[in-house]
Amino acid sequence: MKLITIAIPCFNEEENVENAYKKLKSVLKNCKYSYEYIFVDNGSSDNTREKIQEIINKDKSVKGVYLSRNFGPEASAKAAFDYSSGDAIISFASDLQDPPELLPKLLKKWEEGYDIILGQYDKLDDSKFMTFMRKTFYKLFKVISNIDVPINVTGFGLYDRKVVDALKCLPEKMRFGRGLVAWVGFKTVRISYERKKRLKGKSSYSFVDYIKHSERGIFGFSYLPLDILVYAGFILTVLSFGFIVGYLLMVIFFGNPINASIPLMLAIVFFGGLNLLGLSIIGKYVQVIVEETKNRPVYIVDKKINFNK
User: Could you tell me if residue 51 is inside a domain?
Assistant: First the structure.
């Protein structure tokens, strides 16, 4: 019988982990596989670890991986994949925004030969502002990225063992999971669903966190910002050269009838801002390089529970 790993990253989810576990067990009890459940606690400050321990005490198929601090959602997802041993891995958030009832459909698509089955929400119960920002980012990212990253997906989905092994080989420290999944390829299908609000508690992910996460995607999978700087610099250099030649000819034949103080000030402000923007974009790429060359681990494990070794 094949083994399926249910990977459940969590951070300050003391109100949700037990409900998530019970719903998963209920949905999967009639599926023809054996299961292991891996809860990855990303440095919670509440009683999430105690709740996970209570579940482990009742069910030996449940395992725990506790990180030494909060390394971010990408780190907990990677830890879950690193410590999984299943023939396929299902990534499931403990906040129950993604429906557990969809798991049998994921398994059925896997049986049909698909290696990656992604949950793609066609409706999201969220504020109008966040919905607009997500749609705007996905549209922008689809245009500028050098790979076809699926829109309206989270980490929720099923991944065959060979996909997991391929993702584990990728050495990036500043990870953008959706981009990496698209990059490795393999036979992929998407299943539509409606994403709901959190069952209990409040999300710890702020708007700033979303911005930082989007930067990982843009600067990790697109060189278009640098290309724009190159083209803009070339065009502005040609225009500036033409302006200089034209202005010198005007001075030679007609004197200097133009009061240049205001145009000069505007030119200084414009090109100064353009230079600052260019340096900022280059700085972001340098930041990625610096983080990669440090070669620090993506996460550090504080404790492992119910693992044989």
Answer: yes
